[in-house]
Amino acid sequence: RDAPPGSAPAHVKRTLHGGQWLSEAALWTGWVHRGELRAITDCLLVGLDASSFARIISSHKSAHAFAAAYARKFVEGLNRGLQTDLVEAG
Questions:
Q1: Lowest CB count within 10 Å: 16, 17, 27, 70, which one?
Q2: C-alpha torsion sign, points 27, 29, 32, 36
Q3: Which residues, 6 or more positions from 66, have their beta carbon under 8 angstroms from its beta carbon?
Q4: Residue 40 CA, distance from chain mean position
Q5: Which of 39, 37, 35, 38 is CA-nearest to residue 11?
Q6: Which residues neighbour 36 within 8 Å (Cβ) at sequence distance 6 or greater?
Q7: Residue 1 has what pLDDT?
Q8: CA nearest to 48, candidates 71, 27, 18
Q9: How far apart are CA 73 and CA 64, in angstroms?
Q10: What residues pair up with 86 in beta bridges, in sequence order?
């Protein structure tokens, strides 16, 4: 969220728990990260290059169709609610 001109940006602290992940929006949108991530305990971090993912999935017709349908639903969810890159499992 942008801060009003002349004021400091708002800082939001969130804690992730088991069954949550973040940054999936970068796979399906032109997402721009506007913060930082810090781990305070051991965690699993998986990196995936969005451009490579798109190129590879596009070469598999059924996987591409599934991913495209999923992406549409994901973006619809972003458009309906708070735009965040934190995702709940389920």
A1: 17
A2: negative
A3: none
A4: 20
A5: 35
A6: none
A7: 46
A8: 27
A9: 14
A10: 22
With CA atoms as reference, report the closest residue to 12 among 48, 43, 37.
37
Q: Token digits for 82? A: 């708070």
Q: Which residue has the tokens 């939001």?
A: 12
The mean per-residue pLDDT over the stretch 10-21 comes to 78
Length of the chain: 90
Mean per-residue pLDDT of the chain: 81
Q: Which token pair is 16?
A: 């992730």
Q: How many percent of the chain have pLDDT more than 90?
A: 24
Q: What's the 3-state SS for the chain?
A: CCCCCCCCCCCCCCCCCCCEEECCHHHHCCCCCCCCCCCCCCCCCCCCCHHHHHHHHHCCHHHHHHHHHHHHHHHHHHHHCCCCCEEECC
Quickly tell me which residue has 């991913």 as its tokens: 67
